[in-house]
Amino acid sequence: MEIRVVKLFAIQRGNCPLKIVIAFLAAAMLLFCGGCASKNGNTAGRGKVTVITVWHPWGGSQYERMVGTIDEFNRTHPNIKVKPLFTPNDIASNQKFFTSVAAHKAPDAVFVDGTQTSAWAEQGAIQSLDNQIKQDGIKPGDYYAPCWNQNYYKGHTWALTYCADPNYVFAWNKKVFRDAGLDPNRPPKTIAELNKYNEAITKIENGKIIRIGIIPASFGANALFTWGWVFNGSFYDPKTQKITANDPNVVKALEWMLSYYKKYDIKKLNTFMAGLGSREQDPFFTGQIAMGLFPLFEIEEIKKYAPNLDYGLSYLPVPPGGEEHSSWVGGWCLALPKGSKHPREAWEFIRWCCHDPKGTSAVAKFQNILPGYKYAPYLKEVEHKPGYGKLLQMLRECKHQRPVMPAMGFYFGELDRAISFAAYGEMTPKEALDLATKQTQAELDLRLIGR
Questions:
Q1: How far is CA 45 from CA 75, 78, 191, 208, in A?
Q2: H or E element, residue 440
Q3: d(CA 137, CA 108)
């Protein structure tokens, strides 16, 4: 209990009316009681400040940007102070977080990747947000469908989307197109055209690759998800809880992706990629790779490192019978850990960052990311910024998120291994994806049985 010391002037008996003394003492009691009320958080503004810990995955410049978001939250919520703590987040294993929950020393709120939410829920490491969501009138329709779906598991919502990553827009370097005799304003629309453009762009001198059109397998498992959906494939059946990595259309996608390794020799491609730079020397900026999958952060990288780059953005090329305008959405989310010491204040931070119009816009502006909340004013502000129009269009149309099931970390590893096995000729693409399907299904069954 907080005690305020009130200094009273000496009152000489007989020189001050009794009613004045009573009034003065009453005022003193009000000051004392006011201190008690503030300490218990019953007054707005000045009063008790609850410090909440939030575990986050960012370092470097992204951490500095996140601090701007937290400062804005603290400024607008004087009774809550967010204390961020960096903790590495590995999609396959997060033992530090699970240990903290088991030891009853969990943070108050935690960032979770959309692919991890169902696994963390299955393990009992995070709490359902159903009550809070109902209390604050939050609806699934407030979010782009994949942004909501990635956090919805077994009839409950376990997190809210903090940022939405539309993956991927197709990018091409117009300067390279001109150099190769291609129309710089006409990107390939089909896989056949993409192969043809690649032929025109690729340069090989003395057996050494100097320039290439595209390397479809860049981004590993995420590339396979991307092209797999483009080829109209499926990776998971949520109704039967069956892994479908060996879907015939996913197999076709991987066969096409790895045809470039066969055509140009994987060893030569590896040598080429080993010599590529970053930042100002990013191979897309320098024209060494003319086309590719383009994540959201590349737009800000271009503004910073290659402001004069002449480039275009479009939808991904498709094969016959493929999915037009295909894309998927991922992104970081915020959850309440089991054992959160300050769930009410932590929820207010989650709600403000992920659903509040001012909060979601603050997050987006400070961190150069897109909110998953449909009605964030920021989305209208950036609609006409270079590059953002196409990404926002994709976000509105998108219908995919990576499978919502508790073995996604394991699945990623198996898909990466399948790509590697097939790329080096140890297995055919079909054999590699059969193995990935079998192994992941066994892992998923174990997790579901052991719940």
A1: 11, 6, 60, 67
A2: helix 429-449
A3: 22
Q: CB of 395 within 8 A of CB of 329?
A: yes
Structure tokens at 432: 């590699």
Instruction: Let me know the angle formed at the C-alpha of 44 by 38 and 48, rounded to the nearest 5 degrees.
Output: 35
Q: How high does pLDDT run on average in the chain? A: 88
Q: Is the pLDDT of residue 411 over 60?
A: yes
Of 119, 25, 37, residue with least CA distance to 450: 119
DSSP string across 73-122 = HHHH-TTEEEEEEE----SS--HHHHHHHHTT---SEEEEETTTHHHHHH
Are 319 and 191 contacting, i.e. CB atoms less than 8 angstroms apart? yes
Please report, as a single letter, which amino acid is at residue 414. Answer: E
pLDDT bracket for residue 59 (50, 70, 90): confident
pLDDT tier for residue 299 given thresholds of 50, 70 and 90? confident
Mean pLDDT confidence for 104-118: 96
Q: Which tokens go with 162?
A: 């903090």
Residue 108 has φ and ψ, to the nearest 5°, of: -80, -35
Angle at 219 between CA 215 and CA 221, to 5 degrees: 115
Compute the CA torsion angle 9, 13, 14, 16 (nearest 10 deg): 20
Q: Per this entry, what is the length of the chain?
A: 451
Q: pLDDT-derived band of residue 92, with 50, 70 and 90 as boundaries?
A: low
Cα–Cα distance measured from residue 93 to residue 329, given in angstroms and rounded to the nearest whole number: 22
* DSSP strands (E only) in 98-239: 109-113, 152-153, 156-157, 160-161, 165-167, 169-173, 203-205, 208-211, 236-237
Q: How many whole angstroms from its chain centre is CA 427?
A: 33
Q: Residue 242 is encoded by which pair of tokens?
A: 């069956």
> How far apart are the C-alpha atoms of 402 and 114, rounded to whole Å?
8
Answer for the pair 342, 108: CB distance below 8 angstroms, yes or no.
yes
For residues 291 and 180, what is the distance between their CA atoms, to the nearest angstrom? 13
